[in-house]
Design goal:
With 293 residues, the chain is an alpha/beta fold. The protein contains eight helices and eight strands, in the order βαβαβαβαβαβαββαα. The protein binds zinc ion. This is TatD family hydrolase.
Length: 293
């Protein structure tokens, strides 16, 4: 019911409620754009039936903040890693600080880490070194990996191939690449995270015929908010900041392009996410609908 939303930040046409509880596996809620209204953002996520959120930790500072938020709010979990953009700052001390975070019960994955040869904010050599170090950490701590890859599919597959027996699970978050890269990742038993990229008429429509090729038990969904606001939303959102409450729209889009029922897809992605991140059953139950007095 649309009117169960706690406020009117989202226009009526954007108040979705997923028919089955969802897990947003990539939410950058430590981004400063959420600093002033995080409680309201979380309340809207609950109203949309987004039951659990994995906050992306892209460097030590944000990973610590994400872990701290997970202590304060039920249903929040965190990843801890160093994004390829920041790979030049990798050092052995950082590895020790990260290792301390992996002992935190709500830190459920190593990452965001990986390779981004699109922008090369750190050199490819620096990126490979930092990624290699984080693969080592994932293997040591028995944690799954939350991976970022852009224009580096070939090298990513090579590196993961040599690690595949040592790491347990890995997800390529915000998958944007082509069919060959997708099949290469599936051959390595990787999971795939989908965002609203497939709603982007400028660069993402090639994904539409591909989403049906991802086995349901390997498919997870994410907003990557505040980035990647879906470009085909049925109403305009003031401020254009993406948020977890809009995840049901992305699931609906994927369901459409898979030719399947939205509720069944929602339930499948939540099963995959719960198993992948080892979330407790209590974390993936339907959220209460707040009643209006
Ligand atoms: Zn990313």
């Amino acid at each position: 019911m649309a009117n169960a939303f706690p406020d009117d930040v989202l226009p009526e046409a954007l108040r979705f409620r997923s028919p089955s509880p969802l897990v947003d596996i990539g939410a950058n809620l430590t981004h400063q754009s959420f600093a002033h209204d995080l409680d309201a953002v979380l309340a809207r996520a609950r109203a949309a039936n987004v039951a659990a959120l994995i906050l992306t930790g892209t460097d030590l500072e944000h990973a610590r903040q994400a872990a701290a938020l997970s202590d304060r709010h039920p249903g929040l979990y965190a990843t801890a890693g160093v994004h390829p953009h920041d790979a030049s700052g990798w050092n052995p001390t950082l590895a020790e600080h990260m290792a301390a975070l992996y002992a935190h019960p709500n830190v459920v994955a190593v990452g965001e880490c990986g390779l981004d040869f699109n922008r090369n904010f750190s050199t490819p050599a620096e990126q490979e070194q930092a990624f290699e170090a984080q693969l080592t950490l994932a293997a040591q701590h028995g944690l799954p990996l939350f991976i970022h890859e852009r224009d580096a599919g070939q090298r990513m597959r090579e590196m993961l191939e040599s690690w595949r027996d040592d790491i347990n699970q890995a997800v390529i978050h915000c998958f944007t690449a082509d069919k060959d890269t997708l099949y290469g990742y599936l051959d390595l038993d990787l999971h795939i995270g989908l965002t609203a990229w497939l709603c982007d008429e400028r660069r993402g429509h090639h994904l539409r015929p591909l989403v049906g090729d991802i086995p349901l038990e390997r498919l997870m969904v994410e907003t990557d908010c505040p980035y990647l606001l879906p470009r085909n939303l049925p109403a305009r959102l003031k401020g254009r900041r993406h948020e977890p409450a809009l995840l049901p729209w992305i699931v609906r889009e994927i369901a459409h392009w898979r030719g399947m029922d939205e509720a069944a897809l929602a339930a499948a992605t939540t099963r995959s996410a719960a198993a992948f991140f080892r979330l407790p059953d209590s974390a993936v139950r339907a959220t209460c609908q707040e009643t209006t007095a």
